[in-house]
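REQUEST ID: PR-0412
SUBMITTED BY: lab tech R.K.
PRIORITY: routine
TASK: structure prediction, single protein chain
INPUT:
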Amino acid sequence: MNNTLKKKLQRQEITIGSWITLGHTAIAEIMAKAGFEWLVVDMEHSVITLEIAQHLIQVIEGSGIIPLVRVGENNPTVIKRIMDAGAYGVIVPMVNTKKQAEAAVKAVKYPPFGTRGVGLARAQGYGMEFKRYRDWVNKESIVVVQIEHKEAIENLEDILKVDGVDASIIGPYDLSASMGHPGEFAQIELRNALKRYLDVCALLNKPAGLHVVQPDADEVSKKIKEGFRFVGFSLDTLFLGMGIKASLDRIKKQGNKC
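STATUS: complete
OUTPUT:
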């Protein structure tokens, strides 16, 4: 269980991963073989169940890639169960305060660092490797908080200073919505918030994160130049759908009729 991502986040190195929303192990295997450093099983905006998530985690980990899970809520029971399934860490949505960040960390870690209850599931070797896992999880597990509300921007320093928060991801869509301008990225209030986010991350030596939703490699390069280090590159459905559409459009433009 060598968590290379943890060390890269600590060193502020650029890491690129992607999102999985389709609950089929072949999808996870294909994306793992593509060369991503980490893959996120999305349980916030998909119909993936806990059982399916465990299957995906098994495939991702078995392929030598770091498995993370975006949970649907900052709920200790939800976080505990997905960690028991073998996730190396969690991405927690809508973390707006220091207290909420602390709660996320405590849900991942065992006492004395956290409040997570002990179970004997896949992560613990089904009861045969608990001591090894106990030592590992308190040192190597990853907690990523999502900054996606104007309240989180106001409390940003306090959130990122929480011991155990390894990185964060800014959510421009929900952030703009919390400001009353959903999807209007040219708004000065949002632009100022994004600048503040990058400045505070740099000041506190915490990796700034962003999910570039569209499968646009140039946009990823642009965001890396802006200072983002923990970068999600699109997701399974868009890679599939837009890849197919682009190829079909090219065929049609060449004069072939379908």
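NOTES: DSSP finds twelve helices and eight strands in the chain.
REVIEWED BY: pending
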